[in-house]
Specification:
- By secondary structure, this protein is mostly helical.
- The chain has 19 helices and 4 strands.
- About 60% of the residues lie in helices and about 5% in strands.
- Strands 1-2 form a two-stranded antiparallel ribbon. A two-stranded antiparallel sheet has the order 3-4.
- The relative contact order is 0.12.
């Protein structure tokens, strides 16, 4: 996989962690963990566990391309892998390879193992983003800029509050990924989720609990209460957290894309990308890649949620439909987290442009404040009528709101200049930023 179609995840750590080779390693890790768990509860000799563990550690002896080609025969890669593994170990150990398990046990557990590793990498990048955004929010706590609603100037806000909001979303994503990471379960149910084959071998403990716990412990995953062959909550929860994480970064990217437009120029990426035709351009490439990923992630998550509708004790198609979208979503979100960290760490803020843009409406951006003050002087109906007329005149004559209002005799004792200064109308933006930064 060259990555020509996926620049957002190319060279990201998560891509290597979810490669075919990494998946093969995870499948082998699950097979060896099962033998060790069986040995731990007295169902296999320790020598067999040691032998299988030694063989599976040498991933290079297994041909990933051959296994992939042969997977078509049985519909999944576990079947040819088990055959190859049994051929690679002595006869006395081969009998304990995959014993009692079904293909879905191994593949689901391997996917959870792969997901755990991918989430660890993603969380590392989220921590970078959080720290960078905290620095931006603190540094620009009182940097005033236009607040925009429905694409238009609304009332003044601060860039510190905007950055604090992005950080809050990143922390929301972090918390959800941590929760999901901590609950990723191993899968062990046997042919139809009853663990019947293990009971016939004398697995001790209530409902095969000892074996399941030992197996999960070997993998560093949670021990499930029930086999979840057709109870796909773990995958759906993972999909939701990943899609949310991509969307969180998408919000930040959308703001950067808007605010880095040439005619706005309040932000710019640290290292803009070039153009093949226009040498003067410095495109916001990181934000663009993030925005693309945020649009793709919900569709992948939807496929994984659709697989909740899984019939019988093991499904035909619903389970199989999960594999590629899950890997794509892990890669997409992991790549987005990498790009998000780079974006936040390199983001350039341009307060002069923010201050200049605050004046584009000639002071009308403070009309909410002016209306409240004039209502105290003139009463609400008269204030509204006067302010509407003044704003229309200012716009038509190309004047500031303050200059028009200064001509009103009834406002002789009102400090119109201060009243229409946008830097004096940011509400509790500073305090809200401080409060957001208290969250760790």
């Amino acid at each position: 996989m060259s990555g020509l179609f996926s620049p957002g995840s190319t060279a990201a750590p998560v891509t290597g962690a979810t490669s075919d080779q990494a998946f093969l390693e995870a499948l082998l890790a699950v097979e060896s963990a099962l033998v060790r768990a069986r040995a731990a509860v007295g169902m296999a000799p320790p020598d067999a566990a040691a032998t299988v563990t030694e063989v599976t550690a040498d991933v290079g002896r297994f041909d990933v391309q051959d296994i992939a080609a042969r997977a078509r025969e049985g519909g999944n890669p576990v079947i040819p892998l088990v055959a190859a593994l049994r051929s690679a170990v002595p006869v006395e150990a081969a009998d304990h390879v995959h014993r009692g398990a079904t293909s879905q046990d191994v593949l689901d557990s391997a996917l959870m193992l792969l997901s755990a590793r991918a989430l660890d990498l993603t969380l590392t990048d989220l921590a970078r983003t959080e720290r960078a955004l905290a620095r931006l929010a603190s540094a620009h706590r009182d940097t005033v800029m236009p607040g925009r609603t429905l694409t238009q100037h609304a009332v003044p806000t601060t860039f510190g509050l905007k950055a604090a909001g992005w950080r809050s979303l990143v922390l929301d994503a972090r918390d959800r990924l941590i929760d999901v990471r901590a609950s990723l379960p191993a899968q062990l149910g046997g042919a139809a989720g009853t663990l019947a084959s293990f009971r016939t071998e004398g697995a001790y403990g209530r409902g095969g609990e000892a074996l399941t716990s030992a197996f999960a412990s070997e993998l560093g995953l949670c021990a499930p209460v029930l086999p979840w062959h057709t109870l796909r909550t773990p995958v759906a929860d993972l999909a939701s957290a990943l899609a949310l994480t991509a969307g969180v970064h998408g919000k930040m990217a959308a703001d950067v894309l808007t605010l880095s437009r040439t005619e706005i120029a309040e932000l710019s990426e640290g290292e803009g990308g070039g153009s093949s035709a226009m040498p003067h351009k410095a495109n916001p490439v990181r934000s663009t890649l993030i925005a693309a990923a945020a649009r793709r992630a919900p569709g992948l998550a939807a496929t994984l949620h659709a697989s909740l509708v899984a019939e019988d004790e093991r499904p035909a198609g619903a389970w199989h439909a999960e594999w590629e979208p899950l890997r794509d979503l892990l890669r997409l979100t992991g790549g987005t987290a990498r790009d998000g960290a780079e974006l936040a760490e390199g983001l350039r803020v341009h307060p002069d442009a923010m201050r200049e843009n605050l004046g584009l409406t000639g002071g009308s951006i403070t009309s909410e404040r002016v209306a409240g003050e004039l209502a105290r002087v003139l009463g609400s109906p008269a204030a509204k009528e006067l302010l509407t007329d003044a704003a229309n005149r200012a716009r038509a004559e190309g004047r500031t709101l303050a200059s028009v209002l200064a001509e009103e005799p009834a406002l002789r004792d009102v400090d119109i200049t201060a009243l229409t200064d946008p830097t004096h109308y940011t509400g509790y933006a500073g305090e809200l930023t401080d409060r957001a930064l208290e969250r760790r």
